[in-house]
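Good morning,

Attaching, inline, the C-alpha cells for the sequence recovery test we're adding to the shared suite. The designed sequence is right after.
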C-alpha cells in the first residue's frame, strides 16, 4: 500500500527539520547535516502554501494574514537583534536608540496593515515593501553586526499577492509589483520561481517535478563538484529532496492547529538567535 501524508503531518515534519536547520544557523559548532536536511523546508512550505491557495475562499484575507504575521516577525526580529547585540556593539546608546525607533515604526506599520481593508492591494504591497526595506536600512547602519532577517512570512505574502493580482486582471500587469517586491525578501527570486512552478503545474505533477528539478540543480552551475562545494559551501541544490514530499502529499488537511506555524516559526528563531548571541560572548 502506497504511503501518503496529509498537510498537518508534512507541516509537523517540516517544523522539526526547520528547527534543526536554524540550530545549525545560530548555534556554533553544530553538525553541517542539520543545514542539509533544512534545504527541503522552504520549498515544501511554498508547495503547501500554493496548494492551500486553491482551497482558500478569501484569498485577499490569506495575503493580509501573512502580512500581519510578517510585521509581527519583523518587529520581533528588530527587538531581539537590538537587545542581544548590545554587549557586542561598542556604541550601545546608538544601537539601542535606533533599534527601539525601528521597532516602534515596524509595530506601527503592522498595526496599519491589520487595519487596512483587504481590498487595498496597493497599500498592502507598499506596507509590505516597508517591512522588507527597514531591516535592510538598519543593517546598513550596523555593518559589523548580525541582524536577524528571517521572515519567510513576507515572501509568502508577496507570493499570494502576486497570484491574487495575476488572477484579478492579467492585462494591467499589476502582478509585476508584488513579484518585484518579493525579490528583496528572504526567499527572493527562488520564492517567486517556486510560486510560478507550483501554481502553473499544480495539476501536472510530471511537469512540476521536471521544472522544479531544473530549478534545484541550477544551483550546481559554475560551482564545481568537489566535496566542499556540494556539501559545505553550496548546499541549496539539496532542495531537490523536497520532491518526495510533493509526491506523498494526499491533498488532505489532517489535524488542524491553525496557528502552529505562525507561533513556532518566530518563537524558535528568536530563542535560538538569543542563545547563539550569548554563546558568542
Amino acid at each position: 500500500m502506497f504511503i501518503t501524508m496529509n498537510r498537518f503531518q508534512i507541516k509537523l515534519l517540516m517544523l522539526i527539520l526547520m528547527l534543526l536547520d536554524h540550530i545549525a544557523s545560530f548555534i556554533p559548532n553544530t553538525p553541517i547535516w542539520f543545514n542539509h536536511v533544512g534545504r527541503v523546508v522552504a520549498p515544501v512550505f511554498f508547495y503547501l502554501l500554493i496548494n492551500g491557495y486553491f482551497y482558500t475562499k478569501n484569498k485577499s484575507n490569506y495575503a493580509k494574514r501573512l502580512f500581519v504575521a510578517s510585521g509581527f516577525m519583523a518587529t520581533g526580529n528588530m527587538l531581539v537583534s537590538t537587545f542581544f547585540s548590545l554587549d557586542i556593539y561598542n556604541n550601545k546608546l546608538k544601537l539601542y536608540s535606533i533599534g527601539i525607533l525601528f521597532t516602534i515604526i515596524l509595530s506601527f506599520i503592522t498595526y496599519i496593515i491589520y487595519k487596512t481593508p483587504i481590498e487595498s492591494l496597493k497599500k498592502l504591497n507598499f506596507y509590505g515593501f516597508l517591512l522588507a526595506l527597514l531591516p535592510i536600512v538598519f543593517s546598513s547602519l550596523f555593518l559589523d553586526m548580525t541582524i536577524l532577517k528571517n521572515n519567510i512570512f513576507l515572501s509568502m505574502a508577496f507570493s499570494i499577492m502576486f497570484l491574487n493580482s495575476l488572477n484579478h486582471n492579467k492585462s494591467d500587469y499589476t502582478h509585476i509589483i508584488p513579484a518585484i517586491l518579493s525579490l528583496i525578501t528572504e526567499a527572493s527570486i527562488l520564492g517567486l520561481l517556486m510560486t510560478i512552478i507550483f501554481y502553473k503545474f499544480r495539476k501536472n505533477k510530471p511537469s512540476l517535478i521536471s521544472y522544479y528539478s531544473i530549478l534545484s540543480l541550477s544551483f550546481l552551475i559554475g560551482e564545481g563538484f568537489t566535496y566542499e562545494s556540494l556539501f559545505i559551501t553550496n548546499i541549496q541544490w539539496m532542495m531537490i529532496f523536497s520532491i518526495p514530499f510533493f509526491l506523498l502529499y494526499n491533498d488532505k488537511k489532517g489535524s488542524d492547529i491553525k496557528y502552529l506555524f505562525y507561533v513556532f516559526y518566530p518563537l524558535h528563531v528568536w530563542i535560538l538567535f538569543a542563545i547563539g548571541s550569548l554563546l558568542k560572548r
